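thread: overnight batch results

M.L. [08:02]
morning all. the overnight job finished for the chain we discussed friday. pasting input first so we're all looking at the same thing
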Amino acid sequence: MYYRLCILLLLSLSIITQFDPVWAATDPEITITHDIKITFGGLIIINDIVSIHNTGTAPLSHFQIGAPNTLTEHFEVITAQSIDFIPLSIHPMGLDVNTNIYWFDIMFPQNVDIGANYDFTVTYAFSQLITYNSTNLEYHVLFPEYPALTSNVSSCKSTVRFAEGTVFANSSWGNTTSTTQSPLQANYNLTGWATYTGSQRVIECPFAVRNIVLDSWGNTLFYDTYHIRNTGRDVLYFFDFPLPPNANDVTAYDDFGSLSVFVSTLGESTTARVTFRYPLRGDDGTTPQTGMITLLHFITSNQHTIN
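M.L. [08:03]
and the structure it wrote out:
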């Protein structure tokens, strides 16, 4: 009977260890920068910059990261790339009901050997997490306070940044926009929040379509159509659409004809500012106003990069 109890106890401890992996002091050293950006259009874009120094006892082939399941219904997209811009494969692992975390597995192109360093960035976005409090005249935004990880990491610094024209008021960290956890515990799944004032666009794009046409002169024509819904409080008079850097002769039109377009380039980013024929009314308790915009631009035959 004594030996049976000992065996059962050992089996129980091994099962607990499987579901609660925490690195020991000899395992990899990892630091993370958790950058949260509230965009002018209402998206919450998060960049997790991960730096690994493999002081462990085995090569590393992947890295698991997650977010609170309470936010996953607002999840839009996730990408990952190395420091030299090599895309990394991402495998959704699904929901862990024990931690209430939705996990993703980031695969490395090759093993990170013992003693080696490896840096990469995971970028993901959420929508519809901004609300407006008409009593306090403040916006309220939710976000993952820290990334969820399967094991402890050395340090994680979280910073929330706001769109131009808005002013920070308060956050779940107090009267600050940045905080650090050293170490960051495994399976962290708390939702952070912040409040701010000012002008905030909240825009939805239910769908976008790109049609590509090759003409007889070797040019490539792009017809980009956007269905835009203004769900914010402010009236929308124009919108900035992204363009490839080699786009030429950009025009825009709606169902009634051509629209005013202003193309600008800042660094490697090129945008087309399109002024709407009629301003899109904000959400005043009625159905949010929508608009359909088509951008036409082309790339000449001696330019072959397509974005």
